[in-house]
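for the recovery benchmark. tokens below, seq after
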């Protein structure tokens, strides 16, 4: 009897073990099969795979050297791409511009301009991210120049064509902008745009400008940069970078093959600049009166500051002060900042003589250069 009763007990234990293993596997996706060469297949959403290529913990991520295609034959990014800070995968059915490069760690990056700016976004290969050039981020200047201040308020500052105005003036950082313009006799209005920046810090002068062009060629580089009068040459390739031998913390990086760059002085500022024309469509919509004599190439800009003092002034600079009070009529569709004469630089693009200037040339004790060091 003891022998017979022992047999069912062992059978019961085995059944319990089988049931437990089955229950433990329930709810888990089966592992993805592997190819004959022991590489993982393209991601299968129904199997819990991550379409972005990172895997979900159950399946190994794709190998860096393998570029799997989607069903439509288009390549899949190996790293997550972003647009305006949000995840955004390229959609080849859209006309939005697509960028492809190898990011800093050598993996493939495929990013696309978001719908907000389908053709005119800037691109960072390092972060696999696209950003609309003229979104109202603090520190943005675009078009017939509208600025978004440090307080987040967007406003116009028209200035005057063929003149220079101080945008930022701090203890040891001064940024002037050169304005170009076009007069449309049909509506008797003169429109202005920023064509160049003159950036003075310590004992150095940095020029960033857009070359004039009668006809716009998007494959030609229209950006011109000099440091202390010497040309700064950056390879025409996305992510190409130049680093100053005199100031190792000063760099210029391409954010597109041509016409878009980012200038940075570590710990002090970074400025993204894109050379863009006035198109026939722009001219028609805004009544700019563009003629075939000049495509009115100008700069769309994005400023970031890391060490401004609370003494800063200028068209844009004053909006970063803690005690800044906005006196514009913010109830209008687009507030206008007046007072152009007090921002006028009478001595040229690198002059620091505007009425609100706070700049003091102090090479040895430069706060900006100390921040960058």
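predicted aa per position
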């Amino acid at each position: 009897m003891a022998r017979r009763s022992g047999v069912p007990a062992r059978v019961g234990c085995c059944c319990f073990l089988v049931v437990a293993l089955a229950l433990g596997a329930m709810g888990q996706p089966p592992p993805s099969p592997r190819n004959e060469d022991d590489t993982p297949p393209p991601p299968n959403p129904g199997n819990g795979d991550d379409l972005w290529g990172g895997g979900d913990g159950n399946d190994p991520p794709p190998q860096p050297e393998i570029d799997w295609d989607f069903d439509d034959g288009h390549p899949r990014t190996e790293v997550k791409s972003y647009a305006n800070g949000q995840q955004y995968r390229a959609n080849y059915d859209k006309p939005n511009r697509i960028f492809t490069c190898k990011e800093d760690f050598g993996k493939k990056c495929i990013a696309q301009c978001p719908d907000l700016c389908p053709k005119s976004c800037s691109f960072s290969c390092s972060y696999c991210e696209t950003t609309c050039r003229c979104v109202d981020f603090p520190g943005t200047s675009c078009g017939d120049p509208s600025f978004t201040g440090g307080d987040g308020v967007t406003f116009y500052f028209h200035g005057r064509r063929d003149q220079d105005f101080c945008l930022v003036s701090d203890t040891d950082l001064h940024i002037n902008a050169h304005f170009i313009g076009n007069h449309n006799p049909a509506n008797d209005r003169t429109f202005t745009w920023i064509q160049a920046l003159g950036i003075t810090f310590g004992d150095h002068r940095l020029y960033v400008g857009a070359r004039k062009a009668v006809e716009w060629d998007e494959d030609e580089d229209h950006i011109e940069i000099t440091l202390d009068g010497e040309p700064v040459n950056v390879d025409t390739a996305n992510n190409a970078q130049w680093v100053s031998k005199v100031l190792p913390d000063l760099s210029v990086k391409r954010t597109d093959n041509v016409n878009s760059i980012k200038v940075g002085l570590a710990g002090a500022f970074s400025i993204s600049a894109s050379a863009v024309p006035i198109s026939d469509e722009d001219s028609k919509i805004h009544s700019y009166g563009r003629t075939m004599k000049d495509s009115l190439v100008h700069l769309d800009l994005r400023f970031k500051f890391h060490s401004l003092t609370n003494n800063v002034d200028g068209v844009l600079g004053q909006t970063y002060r803690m005690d800044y009070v906005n006196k514009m009529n913010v109830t209008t569709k687009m507030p206008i900042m007046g007072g152009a004469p007090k921002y006028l630089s009478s001595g040229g693009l690198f002059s620091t003589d505007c009425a609100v200037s706070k700049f003091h040339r102090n090479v040895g004790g430069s706060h900006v250069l100390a921040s960058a060091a």
